[in-house]
Amino acid sequence: MKKSYVYLLTTFMLWGSLYVVSQFVLGKIPTFTVAMFRYLIAFIALSLISLKSEKEKIEKSDYKYFFIMGFIGYFISVDCQLLGTKIAGGSMASLINSLNPVIISVMAMIILNEKLEMNKIVGIILSLAGVYMIIGTGANIQFLGVLISFIAVIGWAFMSVISRKISNKYSALTLTKVSMLIATVCNIPVSFLEVQVTHPLIQVDLGAVLGLVYMGVVCTAFTNILWNKSLSLLPANTCSAFYPIQTLTSSFLGVVVFHEVLTTSFVLGSAFIIVGVLISLLFKKRTRKEKEVLV
User: Fold this and answer.
1) Where is the EamA domain (predicted)?
2) Read out DSSP for 199-266?
């Protein structure tokens, strides 16, 4: 099995676990403050790891790419995702988020000249159908929330393509650490304003702290290193084919942890997602670079 496939499966399964942890933490700490601490903890963890590795010098001509990743990808995109979820509701926001494979594939085709093969098109369609079956569309549609969620998808897709573009020059650790620093700095004033305007009741206890640490170290630092590493090994549209695994994992954990009802649509949708991902990865011609990462 390819290392990159293991990286991607691990990434999206852990991102799916955010569904459980964030439900708990967001009940105690304001939304954007959670985002700020999440990135701060991730940056600290990555900085400690980087002490044992050789320091990479970033070329001035590439500053703009790191800014795009940190500001647009991690700050604007993720904050919009949180805000969109709050306005439009979790189901609608998750459904829009499932468009990531499509948007990333299209951007990769335009910016990176990646070919969108027929098996990936079929796989994406089947996976999106599975996501639709699991989540549904919801009864009420909040246009503002939908728009903000769509902006989040566009921003994340653009960031992923840029990461792929410069992944041959910098390690996944450097790409992720610098981006996290930028996102942290950008989130500080937003978090401060949130607390000042809303005056929320903040409950900082051991559970909330452990939840933030898990979100920062495991679901942010570790997973984004794997994501950026995967983008350096495989085409962006191949990596994006794994996105439905995140929805599948979060839905499964919802059943296990929150005792949500296991419906026929969940089982059928899960089958569509699994088949869609497999079709995206199989029945295709391997490129020379993909063959080199086989183990």
Assistant:
1) 4-135, 144-281
2) -------HHHHHHHHIIIIIIIIIHHHHHHHHHHHS-HHHHHTTHHHHHHHHHHHHHHHS-----HHH
